[in-house]
Write a structure and sequence with these properties.
Helices cover about 30% and strands about 20% of the residues. It is of the alpha/beta class. It has a 4-stranded mixed β-sheet with strand order 1-13-15-14, with helices on one face. The two termini are about 15 Å apart. About 55% of the residues are buried. Bound molecules: ligand EPZ.
């Protein structure tokens, strides 16, 4: 990409990757056809549907609507190679147990941003009476004696909350989740399960109740818009002194991101399900950013905000409290001329006037998006290698940015 072009224009935001993935898993609970409308065409969605097909489900795309049929769901043994393909496959454990009462899975493994343990998932499922034996890294799960009960999460894990919600949806009785995660994507999962005939209440708060039902039926459902993809596009306008109008957003989900960009001097306004950002010529540093579970600042937007702060006037302090290694792109940003000092969970960014283009390499999804943002404002050409990481969560990001005035192209090297 060639930096220096202003981002300007209007774009419609896709459905949220982190809502669609658990909802795809939950579709296994339905005794009938599930259609997800306006599903994002991203690698993680294709990986997840690939796994569902291995378990006996059928999937078919019609435009950007994705239909799933799980009438032939029979296999509870998760193929190891597929299970390790994407971490979100762990979300399948709850629905498989909820539907088939048996499951054999391996540990999904860590990634660049952290070890990504699943102890809270397993502890939650054991609290529902699932017997889990770990034999050489293979988890044999026996849910034949599963029963509704109380689950307490030591940490409000998004995935563990979603897994237990799904495992409990067909369990006779009421399961209560204490210290549950409160992300908007969890509220969306509740809405989806209830549209299938489930009885879940309290999502969005730390206390969720799941009243089990006998059967869940098929449904057509439109997942919520992607607040992280939206925030990334707001950052693209901010970092290029541009102006952007996002259609199909939920402003309430963007409050923390809008607040930080507002601190930097951006003018932000809302019009129904649209959000408009006008950036100043030069951004001011935000003083401090701390990632926290929702409703705190989302960790998935931290790398992007760090990139934006590199050219802001002043010093920005960033504290990453959710993942242990989420400054993976700092080395590349430094090569581009950024002044960033990392110590443990803290990064201190002294803003510079200008970054210069370089060949850099993405190491994870949001770190890759951050490098694209840096390339948009850098002087000269930037090449971001390993674009497949970015494709995990953004559908053809280069096309979206070009339509907004950037000079970006996908090249095969
Ligand atoms: C979800 O991951 C999202 N992924 C992540 O988005 C997001 O960063 C994260 O929630 C936090 O918001 C999807 O929804 C598909 P967690 P998840 O369980 O469920 C620790 C992106 O870029 N933990 O809330 O894995 C864990 O190590 C991705 O779109 C345990 O210790 O997040 C981490 O430090 C990245 N034991 C913290 O909790 C467990 O059993 C938060 O993890 C589970 C988690």
């Amino acid at each position: 990409m060639l930096g220096g072009e202003r981002i300007e224009g209007s774009v419609r935001v896709d459905a949220a990757k982190n809502a669609v993935l658990p909802i795809l898993a939950a579709s296994m609970l339905a005794d009938g056809e599930v259609t997800l409308r306006r599903c994002p065409d991203i690698r993680d969605v294709h990986a997840m549907t690939g796994i569902l097909e291995k378990l006996g489900c059928e999937s078919a795309w019609q435009g950007d609507d994705l239909t799933l049929k799980n009438t032939r769901l029979h296999n509870w043994e998760m193929p190891d190679d597929l299970f390790k393909q994407i971490r979100s496959s762990i979300f399948l454990l709850g629905p498989i147990l909820g539907r088939l009462r048996r499951a054999t899975v391996t540990y999904p493994g860590g990634c660049e941003i952290g070890l990504r343990p699943i102890d809270l998932h397993l502890k939650g499922l054991r609290a529902l009476g699932v017997r889990i034996v770990d034999a050489d890294g293979i988890l044999y799960c026996d849910g034949r004696d599963m029963r509704a009960g109380d689950v307490y999460f030591d940490y409000p894990s998004v995935g563990a909350t979603e897994n237990v919600m799904m495992a409990a949806a067909l369990l006779d009785g009421v399961t209560t989740l204490h210290n549950a995660a409160r992300e908007p994507e969890i509220e969306d999962l509740e809405r989806f399960i209830n549209r299938m005939g489930g009885k879940v209440r309290g999502a969005g708060t730390q206390l969720i109740e799941v009243e089990g039902v006998k059967r869940l039926h098929g449904v057509a459902y439109t997942p919520i818009p992607d607040r992280i993809a939206a925030g990334t596009l707001l950052c693209a306008a901010a970092v290029t002194g541009g102006e952007i109008r996002l259609e199909n957003v939920r402003p309430v989900d963007l409050v923390p991101i809008g607040a930080k960009l507002g601190e930097m001097g951006c003018r932000i306004s809302e019009e129904g399900d649209a959000m408009i950002l006008e950036a100043p010529k030069r951004l001011n540093a935000f003083t401090r950013l701390q990632t926290q579970p929702h409703p705190g600042f989302p960790t998935d937007m931290q790398p992007q905000m760090l990139a934006v702060s590199c050219i802001a006037k002043g010093t920005s302090v960033i504290e990453e409290n959710v993942f242990e290694n989420r400054f993976t792109q700092v080395g590349s940003l430094t090569q581009m001329g950024a002044n960033v000092r990392v110590s443990g969970r803290m990064a201190v960014v002294q803003g510079v006037e200008q970054l210069h283009g370089m060949r850099v390499a993405a190491r994870d999804l949001r770190g890759g998006a951050a490098l694209v943002l840096a390339g948009l404002c850098a002087h000269g050409e930037t090449v971001v290698e390993n674009a497949e990481f970015i494709d995990r969560g953004y559908a053809r990001l280069e096309d979206t940015l070009c339509a907004l005035g950037a000079k970006v192209e996908r090249v095969t090297i």
